[in-house]
Amino acid sequence: MKTLNLLIALSLLLLFGCSEPKTDGITTILQPNTDQGLSFPVYDNFDAIEGLFNQQNDTTYVINFWATWCAPCVEELPHFQQLARDYTGKPLRIVLVSLDFKKDLTTKLPRFIEEFPLDPRSLPVVALTDKDQNSWIDRVDSRWTGTIPITVIYKNGLRFFVDKSFSTYQDLKTQVEPLM
Predict the structure, then answer these.
(1) N or C: fewer beta carbons within 10 Å in the chain?
(2) 42: burial class by Cβ within 10 Å (0-12, 13-18, 19+)?
């Protein structure tokens, strides 16, 4: 009998104890690039972040494409900061996808993130350096012409595509609120 109990216990341990912890897919994508000494991940291929656009859960996702050299992009960042503050503790995930030039990823972008400041816990930055934009822009949204800023706001099957900057916080909140 003891042998049977031991076999059952070992089987359960192997079955449940050795499995990898479950993640939402987003957490893995947003891991910092510690090997490059950066506080944000850098991806050379859109395929690596495509999972950001396909989450199926109770969270509303706000994904903004921007760059430090884009004045309208920078002007709307405070609205995303305010949104993150106002929805703390609610099922909202904001991700800022930087399209800054690869040469600026170790200098200009980290300095901007620190000085602005962009808190990686509430406004995580992901840098995308995939130069083959024509292969992935339509995968974000077929209406995207390639200009920035653009924002994709979605929850499960409902998706909004905004191809202009948010001039006020209220403009952004009005787009997000129906999905909350």
Answers:
(1) N
(2) buried
Find tokens 């994508």 and name the residue: 29
d(CA 118, CA 134): 29
3-state secondary structure of 31: coil
Distance CA 152, CA 140 (A): 8
Q: Tokens 């001039």 belong to which residue?
A: 167
Question: pLDDT for 107-139, tens place per residue?
Answer: 999 999 999 888 888 899 999 999 999 999 999
Q: For the domain bounded by 23-179, which CATH number is listed?
A: 3.40.30.10
Beta strands in 24-115, from DSSP E residues, in sequence order? 42-43, 60-66, 92-98
Of 133, 68, 146, nearest to 103 (Cα)?
68
Give the predicted TM-score (pTM) of the model. Answer: 0.82
What type of residue is 146? G
